[in-house]
Design brief:
single chain, about 325 residues, alpha/beta, Rossmann fold, UDP-galactose 4-epimerase, domain 1, 2 domains, 7-stranded parallel sheet, 3-stranded mixed sheet, 14 strands, about 40% helix, about 20% strand, globular, binds uridine-5'-diphosphate
């Protein structure tokens, strides 16, 4: 019995692979290395380089490896990019996911865990937002993921496949042992950009909007540490293997930090003061979004262990220093 991890050479996927291997699972990674890197996949896992929407490739590898569960991370994930390239997002995140699901059904894969996103809620009417709130994504990214949630519901109804959808809030930090982290050089996510700025890799950075209806005017987000998130997937896999129901679950800490609070934390933890320019709003950004996480705690038995913004920032900083040292060396 083997677990297929799409996007396993990427940021969250590579943390997942480490968790699975530590639990003694057999792992096959499928990744096209567009943003992931080969060195993020340990030798104990098999790496297949290719697209998850490539049905002949995926069918062959599911059959060959007797895949029991698919954990599907591979996706395009940048909200503003989805605004300028919606069809690219619908092709990769939605149409290719349909192709993957089709292979899963044809080969009778039992379990499917899907990386969804808080962006499916759009601008929630209240925070913390629970899984039953209305789904009104405001970006092509959010819509591209919500469509896959719907496909999964319909597919599980029609076929013998069960699923867990995990809606990620803002994923940050790195492996506490320093083995992997967010490696894509042009990442746009706040904590990554801020630690790169602290390291002098960027001359300064921008805050996209301080005129939101939030306490300090900047956007509020719920930052979840990446190993805690990978542990939620392990809990989801165990839930499915134990015969648990199909489930949709938020992954966050039920606590929001503003962009300005995050930047203060980065400056304090790194001891570096850097230039921050206040700019206009970025398209597709909701003002505030914080997870209600009771369902993950109660049904999956998930308990966060890295719920600490200082620790998250320190991990991101240490990882970025390591990447920089690698770059300088070679
Ligand atoms: N943000 C910012 N400057 C940056 C990157 C992000 O002000 O250089 C803000 C962004 O507008 C949003 C928050 O930080 O309000 C989190 O954005 P990120 O891209 O990290 O994640 P998202 O919430 O879009 O998934």
């Amino acid at each position: 019995m083997t677990v297929l991890v799409t996007g396993g050479a990427g940021y969250i996927g590579s943390h997942m692979v480490l968790e699975l291997l530590e639990a003694g699972e057999k792992v096959v990674v499928l990744d096209n290395l567009s943003t992931g890197r080969r060195s993020a996949v340990p030798n104990e896992a098999e790496l297949v380089v290719g697209d998850f929407g490539d049905q002949p490739l995926v069918s062959g590898l599911i059959a060959r490896n007797k895949i029991e569960a698919i954990i599907h991370f591979a996706a395009k994930i940048v909200v503003p990019e989805s605004v300028v390239d919606p069809l690219g997002y619908y092709l990769n995140n939605t149409a290719s996911a349909r192709a993957l699901l089709d292979c899963a059904v044809k080969h009778k894969v039992k379990h499917f865990i899907f990386s969804s996103t808080a962006a499916v809620y759009g601008e929630p009417e209240k925070n913390p937002v629970s899984e039953d709130e209305s789904l009104k994504p405001v970006s092509p990214y959010g819509r591209s993921k919500l469509m896959v949630e719907w496909m999964l519901q319909d597919t599980a109804f029609a076929h013998d496949l069960r699923y867990v959808v995990l809606r990620y809030f803002n994923v940050a930090g790195a492996d506490p042992k320093g083995r992997t982290g967010q490696s894509f050089p042009n990442a746009t996510h706040l904590i990554k950009v801020a630690v790169q700025t602290a390291l002098g890799m960027r001359p300064g950075m921008e805050v996209f909007g301080t005129d939101y209806p939030t306490p300090d005017g900047s956007c509020l987000r719920d930052y979840i540490q990446v190993t805690d998130l990978a542990r939620a997937h392990m809990a989801a896999l165990n839930h499915l293997r134990d015969g648990g129901e199909n489930l949709t679950c938020n992954c966050g800490y039920e606590r929001g930090y503003s962009v300005l609070e995050v930047l203060e934390t980065v400056k304090r933890v790194t001891g570096v003061d850097f230039d921050v320019k206040i700019s206009g709003r970025r398209p597709g950004d909701p003002a505030a979004i914080v997870a209600a996480n009771q369902r993950a705690r109660e049904i999956l038995g998930w308990e966060p262990v890295h719920d600490d913004l200082d620790e998250i920032v320190r991990q991101a900083y240490e990882w970025e220093k390591k990447l920089l040292a690698e770059k300088t060396a070679g």
